[in-house]
Design goal:
- This protein is α+β, with helices and mostly antiparallel strands.
- The chain has one domain: Beta-grasp domain (Ubiquitin-like (UB roll), Roll), CATH 3.10.20.
- It is 27% helix and 27% strand.
- The strands form two sheets. Strands 2-1-7-3-5 form a five-stranded mixed sheet. A two-stranded antiparallel sheet has the order 4-6.
- It binds FE2/S2 (inorganic) cluster.
- GO terms for molecular function: 2 iron, 2 sulfur cluster binding; metal ion binding.
- InterPro entries: 2Fe-2S_ferredoxin-like_sf (IPR036010), 2Fe-2S_ferredoxin-type (IPR001041), Beta-grasp_dom_sf (IPR012675).
- Belongs to the 2Fe2S plant-type ferredoxin family.
Length: 110
């Protein structure tokens, strides 16, 4: 087991996370207010932008392949190096999903 430092930019928060646990589970244990909902890699609520470092997140099904390079779903992501994360930053696909939902709602109103 290897432990890495995860720093959250803009908050001064820093935690140690092993490569055997998810970043979200450690956040919950440490009392860090990381948002989450589904905890299965689908809703994107727990997203964070990867400012520096690498994660492994093969089960992050809510992200496209390209988004996986720049965003971590903290409920699925395990550190693969020391990390700097920007919590509450969402990948572009979540904006597309929101626009689709708004379009569907507008169409339903017609
Ligand atoms: S909590 Fe839903 S994707 Fe992580």
């Amino acid at each position: 087991m290897t432990e890495y430092t995860v720093e959250f930019v803009g908050t001064g928060e820093e935690i140690t996370v092993s490569d055997k646990e998810t970043i979200l589970s450690r956040c919950i244990e440490e009392g860090i207010a990381q948002e989450y909902s589904c905890r299965v890699g689908m809703c994107l609520a727990c997203s964070a932008e990867i400012v520096a470092g690498e994660v492994t997140q093969p089960a992050a099904r809510g992200l496209t392949e390209q988004e996986r390079e720049n965003y971590a779903l903290t409920c699925m992501a395990r550190p693969a190096s020391d990390l700097r994360l920007d919590r509450g930053k969402y990948p572009p696909s979540i904006e597309a999903d929101a626009a689709d939902a708004a379009g569907d709602a507008a169409a339903a109103d017609d």
